[in-house]
Design a protein that fits this description.
With 239 residues, this protein is α/β, with parallel strands linked by helices. The protein has helices at 19-30, 42-52, 67-80, 106-133, 154-173, 190-195, 207-220, 229-235; strands spanning 10-13, 34-39, 57-61, 83-88, 137-141, 179-183, 225-228. The chain has a single domain (10-232), classed as Rossmann fold, CATH 3.40.50.720.
Amino acid sequence: MNRFQKTCPVAIVTGASRGFGRAVTAALLDRGWAVVGDARRASELKTTARELNSTQLIALPGDVTDPSHRDALVGAATTAGPLRLLVNNASRLGPSPQPALSDYPARELSAVYQTNLFAPLALIQAGLPALTDNAGVIVNLTSDAAVEPYPGWGGYGSSKAALDQLSAVLAAEASTVPVYAFDPGDMRTEMHQAAFPDEDISDRAEPESVVPALLRLLDTRPASGRYRAADLLLSGVRQ
């Protein structure tokens, strides 16, 4: 017997074991969603699943750059119920500390793009039929590094800039499915600490404080586009 009600909306959240992905997963579970969440670190994902303690969470360890893992994510989601949300949250920062582009190792840059651009597109392609049938939503996590030329952020930032453009073109092509490039801003996460290994980042926002901005997108469904959490939290979404 399926442990989920077929009417329960289902979300795929990548990078669900910690940081913003964990916070989004917890919020969706609280709203009655079923969530298929993944992470590369199986032990962390297992700990998160135990702490969240929800029968509505399907925890699938794996790497989003692995085609068989992506198939497993979509298969689990569509079996659990109507897939109505895909959150491409999993990201790779690259080397820490981050190198200048003149010194950026080609293999590392390729790995950043595989995780931050190619894997999200492949997961979108796999899930789009179900998302279309179920009036779903796609959320791609972006960054201010996609639009600002911060020294040292050439690898990560350019991959997110490409994801922004991918999101915009996809929205124009698949007009029945809202596509949001969502910039959460600086947060107190492990990845952000790795970007600034010698700095105190305790003044950054906790991921949980940013989740209401994403939920507002889901609740109001404005036009597809790029949205900053800070703007959503301050003034709301303009339809």
